[in-house]
Amino acid sequence: MKASRLVAVVLQNVRRNRKNFVFSAIGITVGVCVFSFFTALTMGVRVEVLNRIYPVDLIEVEPASVNIAGTKSSIEKVPFREEGVTMLLKEPGVGRIFPKLRSRFQATYRMGGQLFGQDGITFEAYFDGLDGGLLRRELKEGEELRAGKSVKDRLEARYGREHRCYDAEDCSPGEECREGLCQKVEYWSLFRDWREYIPCRDESICAAGYGCRYEQCRALCKADDECLAEETCLRSPCTKDEDCGPGGCVAGRCSTGACFFPCEGGCPAGQECIPAVCLTAADCSDGPCYEGQCALGGTCTFMSCVQRRKEREVLGNPDMIRGERPGLCDDGTPVPEGGTCVLARCPVGSYCSVHTYFKPGSLWRDKRGEGRCEQPIPVVLNPIVMEIFNMVLGSTLDRAQLGTVDTLLGYGAYVTFGHSFYKDPVKDRTPVQKHMLVVGFSNKALEAGVTMPMAYVDRANSRYKGKGASQEYDSMIIQLAAAEHLPAVMAMLDRLNIQLSRRSSEAEKFRTILLVAIAIFFIMASIILAIAAVNITHTFLMVIYERNKEIGIQRALGATKMDIRLIFLGESVLIGLAGGAMGNGLAYGLSQIADFLANRYIGDFPFQPDTFFHFELLWVFASTGFAIFFSLVGAFFPANRAARMDPARTLTVG
């Protein structure tokens, strides 16, 4: 029988036996629906939730240790230092490595503004540092994805006009002056090291790779590529070894240079250009005057400032964090002798970081004093912090809950290094208050704190715990060269006695649970499909009984046993296709209902996806293939029985 004729006969038989066909397809539909629905749910949890919390191509590891007589001893074969990073990068399957460094001294957060008012709220601070190379792309994509979704963004796009500017003072909050126009701040680009002013008398409080130059901890260098992208390596003039620190003074120049922002490209916010010519050291805003030339001339230095406002006033009006610049009027001219003027402040985007307090004995309530203009420390929050905020604000402080993570984007807060509710202040170290700016959100950030560029944590650890406080990394995030290298990298970690961090261990457990869940759903669907196959067998046996004479006539007219067999198997294939299509369609419809009910009644929670289901084309085809397979199994024996029927006996009986 030709294929076209076979298809025509199969379709004709299906139309004649719609009732039997529908009942046979019901069991297949249910089985496919169960398999497709729960598989899509499992894959959705993995793709939309789990991989966002624990990215599949990232593994966080930490030093393995054993507790011997109450003392923890490290047992890993690779040191968690720079040389260890170099060793691991040589291992197959390892793409990049991002070290992580936690704070090792006491600190507290102080928050005020619109969220907590001028009285503010203070609590213990926990934070860690991470290389911006891991987060910056994610922060950019997240910010671009959220852009344009708010009512404000849509109104600005529809009715907004270009606002020209000369400097940041002309722009509204959340905007910056770029190319003569006020444009929205790209917060993701701020997650980097902006340097900070750390006064020093010797090398003891400077981090590794830093030296005490001209009473300030500065990054040391031999060439420009050892500095930040915009910085230059300057070997400053000197007269004695004490002016230079390590390496000493050689032929009137320090043998080891230090990193500076050059004036040519413009100074960062809060910094000003050091003049080249001088008569005395007072003419140089930083560094000494050598033979009529400023030692650091042509480079940027932190502006001097003074904070005269009490902390309660600053918390009530965050713009006051800019302090004042003594001796300089707001228009840039010097304060006239015997006259007054509105004093200049630290530039927009910076704040007055106090390092010499007016009342050192009452730092907790009064942080007024002299300092330097600095840019805030950029920090990243974990989205789960939003949930913590909402629980605390709603239940404890009786305040309105925050809506989305963008509510905190650009929010400023304070962290006081060296102060704690539970410990005494760090000996021989003056607590210092720094300003932080929320620049983005990432699941890689600390769950109960903030994550900042690692350089800030490195410098702070050294400042309050000594130069060697940051020699060991607390953990390392390994980015795989490709996801398929995961088994090989896991075997390598086991060989080197390196253990997974808590988060990565949880990820492995969850992935194992998901695999088990898929296996369970597969078994459940297989049982349902097997029952459906038995039902198909009974249906086809009944159909064969009803079509005895018809089968006999077909055989008498020349149909072969194979033709009869293919007719019934073709009908079963249609049952499988129809059941697979209806089952997948029903599963998709139920998933839409489930998403609707979840969004309406469950409410928001951390990492909530747009959908909990992920339908992959491969699994859809696989479920339809299973349906066809079980339909063929159910129809195989009845088809063989029909093919073996004797046409003469069939036509003569009855």
The major pleated sheet works out as: 6 strands, mixed
Shape from CA axes?
A: elongated
Q: Report the average pLDDT across residues.
A: 79
Number of strands: 30
Span between termini: 28 Å
User: Can you list the strand order of the major beta sheet?
Assistant: 28-7-4-29-1-30
Identify low-pLDDT runs.
none
Number of helices: 15
Which structural class do the helices and strands define? alpha+beta
- Tell me the β content: 15-25%
As a whole number of angstroms, the C-alpha radius of gyration is 36 Å
How many distinct folded domains? 3
The portion of residues assigned to helices is 25-40%
How would you describe this protein?
- The structure is a single chain.
- With 654 residues, the chain is an alpha+beta fold.
- 39% of the residues lie in helices and 20% in strands.
- The strands form ten sheets. It has a six-stranded mixed sheet.
- 35% of the residues are buried.
Compact summary:
Helix content is 39%, strand content 20%. It has 15 helices and 30 strands.
Q: What attributes does this structure have?
A:
alpha+beta, 5-stranded mixed β-sheet, 6-stranded mixed β-sheet, 20% strand, 654 residues, 15 helices, 30 strands, 3 domains, 39% helix
